[in-house]
């Protein structure tokens, strides 16, 4: 039996092909030629940050680099364990982009006593924070290539804090690949 798989790496825009042979008499031959997938997981705690969008790529990489370096090819999944903050990938150079994004979010999601929200148990910024969190989301998936997160030159991981009272935020990072 002949099995064929193709993988494309964005760092080198060429197809890489791998051919694996198995036979009915040797059920372990494929396992000998294909590395077993690896898994790693770590919870990264980010310190309390003021309201706004913050570039956190370096803090996350600092915590996961030893495990990340063990992966040739795979995926990094980041999951934020909170409902009043969010994760996104965006501009990593000009902080004006983060400020403008915060301005945009505050303009489209009204806040305060005149806002139409029913959920105000934790203050007037709570429901707007939940809406903003749902807009950007709480999870990211990033390709891993040669022990590095394979993001574009100007891309960075942002934590968007949507509350006025800063709190530490936990991000569960799960790495999977070979």
TrEMBL record:
It comes from the Eukaryota. Gene3D superfamilies: YjbQ-like. InterPro entries: UPF0047_YjbQ-like (IPR001602), YjbQ-like_sf (IPR035917). SUPFAM superfamilies: YjbQ-like. This is Secondary thiamine-phosphate synthase enzyme.
């Amino acid at each position: 039996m002949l099995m064929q798989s193709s993988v494309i790496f964005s760092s080198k825009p060429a197809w890489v092909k791998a051919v694996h042979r198995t036979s009915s008499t040797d059920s372990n031959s494929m396992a000998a030629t294909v590395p077993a997938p690896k898994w790693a997981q770590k919870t990264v705690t980010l310190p309390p940050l003021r309201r706004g969008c913050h570039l956190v790529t370096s803090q996350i990489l600092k915590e996961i680099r030893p495990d990340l370096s063990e992966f040739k090819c795979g995926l990094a999944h980041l999951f934020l364990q909170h409902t009043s903050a969010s994760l996104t990938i965006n501009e990593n150079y000009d902080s004006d982009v983060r400020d403008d994004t915060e301005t945009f979010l505050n303009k489209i999601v009204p806040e305060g006593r005149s806002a139409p929200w029913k959920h105000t148990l934790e203050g007037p910024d709570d429901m707007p924070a939940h809406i903003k969190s749902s807009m950007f989301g709480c999870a990211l998936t990033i390709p891993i290539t040669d022990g590095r997160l394979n993001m574009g030159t100007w891309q960075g991981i942002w934590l968007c804090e949507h509350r006025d009272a800063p709190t530490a935020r936990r991000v569960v990072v799960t790495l999977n690949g070979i």
